[in-house]
Amino acid sequence: MSERLPQIKGNELIKLLEKDGWEIARKGGKHFSLVKKFKDRTRVTTIKNTSNDIPRGTLNAILGKDQTNLGREGFLKLLHKK
What value, to the nearest 5°, has the Cα angle with vertex 73 and ends 72 and 76? Predict the structure, then answer.
């Protein structure tokens, strides 16, 4: 069984994604929409800018195929690049 993903705060994840080339497209209250253009499509994800940990299910959804498409391995690589 694989190890659980580490907890990360919303504001930390936003900074991490910005370092990976994501840009803040919109701010609505505490929610930030980030976009990144790829060859085949433009991906969009929305993250709550908070100092609270992102729930694991939400983090998995953000890392999933329909949003950032980073997956577990991509996320861990970004974390270690800090």
Answer: 85
